[in-house]
Protein 1
Amino acid sequence: MSQDLIRGHLDGLVLAVLRGGPTHGYGLIEALRDRSGGFFDLPEGSVYPALHRLERAGQVASGWSEVGGRRRRVYALTTAGRRAAEQRQNDWRSFSAAVERVFGAGGPTERTVAS
Amino acid sequence: MTYRSIESYVDDLAWRLRVGRRGRRRIADEVTAHLADLVAEEEAAGLTPQAATRAATARFGSPERIAAEFNRDSALHSARTAAWTLTACVAMAFVAAGFALRGGAPAHPWPDGRLYYAVPALLVQVAIFCAGTALLLSVVAPWLLGGPPQGLATAARALAAATVVLIPVAVVSAGNIVGAGRLVGTLSAFVALGVPVATVFSVRALLRAEPSEGVATLDVVADCCEALARRWTWSARLYSLVVERWTEAVERTPRLISWLELRRHPWRAAAVISFAAGFTLKLPDQLTGDFDFPAVAIEAVAAFTGFAVFGGLLGLRSRIRAPGPLDALGAEG
């Protein structure tokens, strides 16, 4: 899958990971990689613009805290973010089910074209 | 590009960021913490400190690309704030000018009566088009099309134009807050305060938007119309009805319709649309029997002059791309 295609869904993926609980950028990219079985192996810095964008939209809140002796910015879903995550999940399920139906239906019977 | 230390990577990223001092510091701190984790992970896997730093910065991604995404989001935020503020200011200035004409004006307008009435009358119309274009590109189109904004640079230019045009209106409004009635005074105060705020955000949007992000505004308008048509059954019917009628008209009278096609003949179509706009603006007077044709001509010339001066800036003068050899093949096939 191309990275551009993943980027188009990055905000939704970030919200989905944060539904599991607050985390920092490093933990988020690890969770994204683990939960996708290594499929989403993005440049790690690409989650930060998404996190800042979601924070600006009021879907994520953040604050500095000490984790494992290091100072890190921890992100958590807000109520609006939780709603947005559910909405995106539903939208994606409808979309992927429709795509699956189209792919699963198979094409028209192949015919040999006489040249 | 490889980096020998976390600091050199963060410095390179910070140098590329156009997000304000506080935002830059916060991003730099977050990236430093993340890179420290990555370096520790790579060292635990057996790499030397130098090799671990190189691996960590490579895993983090290109600073150029990350900074570009931060800059685009920041420009969009500034553009949206400026577009909303300017639109509100334009509406307030328009309403204030209307109430001033109906007796709400101060007894002794500042700097004098002629300027008090002429400045909003001349400039607010231009600001409506510029702020409207910016609002379309930065707020309405991303919401309707459900994707990243197209034409952020065009929106930023439109905002800058609207701001420049509204500054004299804000100055005149500020000079007449006290003397005017309560309603006109309140509206004037809003304009006087809102325009400087919008100026700050417009300048930020202009500085942070990538220059290559310009787009033909008419393409965005067309995309928005299609998106609106897809929303409801009635709008889909209306859209297909309009498209069918237009196609029929083009087939029947191609030369006549070419006078209305802004994408093929911008100047020709602008002349027709300007005359139609002038006629429509004076329609209330004409319906009451007051056929003031010089006034229609003045409005039409003003609209055409506006297109000539601001059309390129607002992305309204781009022509349809000439069909290439592949398009021709597709049409034949």
Protein 2
Amino acid sequence: MVDNSDNEASSESSDEEQTEVREYKKYLKSIPAKYLKRIRAAATKENLPVATVNVSDSSSAEVASAVTCATTLTFTTELEEMEYLHSHPSKKETRSPFVFKSIANYLKDKVFPTVKFWADSDMKFTQPDFSKKVQTEKKEQARRICEKILEHLGREPDSGSGYSYHMCVPFWRAYRTEIKDELVRYRANVGSQAKEMYLEGKSNDMYQLFLIRSLTIFG
Amino acid sequence: MRELCRTNSLLDIRNTENTEAFKAFVCVVLPAVVRKLHFRNNRCHKPISNSDFVSIPDEAFGLLILENNFDKWEKYVANGRKCDIAKKTQTKFAPTERSTNWASNTAALTRYNAYYHMIQQRRLDSEQQDLEKEIMDSFQEEPGNKIRRTGKRRFAEMDGTTEGNEEPMPPLPIAAIDSFA
């Protein structure tokens, strides 16, 4: 907790305090403007200096009915908290090449046979709504795939109904681009392989069995 | 198959009169879509309509790729693989000449959906199921007609035959003492 109201005093204080202030300012910059505005509004309501606001970790932030205290960042709805998770730079899982390899295998074996094109819009793909409690078949494509991948990776569901947005959002933020690119890559591979086989004019010796004369391209 | 592509009537590929075209499609395009190894491992004991083998999206996507690239591939066939004309040919659903981003084209997606619905309906027909069984049977016959290329000499020795000489060789002597005991 850093008191920023007495700038003059802090400038005279020790070096440690100054570095603390600098770090705090840096942290304030990383908070999205929307949330910062809310924090400031709540702080002025309670006559608290803005600099004393302590933004707690989102995992510990409770979903309250209203902003009650300026000392913790609380969210009126799950959607707001999810948006915060989507936008905050630190709320992103660390990418691992080994995890991604596992994801790629799952995509190749299970996802690509059934999903050739993304049905979701760009916005829905980038920021799927993980907060709604809907039945599996009614969920959006990106959300369904995310949950399936998490299941495949052996991550344990953190809520009774499945994976909550606290788990899904950081994971999806870390791997969504790779997941999208991977499917694009598979599509391209299929195209190039089909071209090769078409230009060869035959395949798997079935050509001779069925006597497909029409396919004798170079004959 | 070429005629169907030329006349833009690939939606009729599963009709009874286009059996040969469908067989050609199965042999040429489907292995690329479902991966060659997967195709080879399953073709003898699973019909094409089995979703573990070839799913409906797989088949629809194969047809879409064929329709999209047919003109370009035909130019490659006519002028050779290093032909510049073929390289510059625009695919059917590509937005511009140089763009390869055809998958986000609405027309392509509409066509894909049309293929999907067609396949979904036609897979239930008994005629089509018979045709798929026929294809599966012909795949089963295939390995018997084929001479193994890898380890040919080794297999020939094991069978007691040598290449060019079909007379059986005398059997190998059996060990008199069972050393295992």
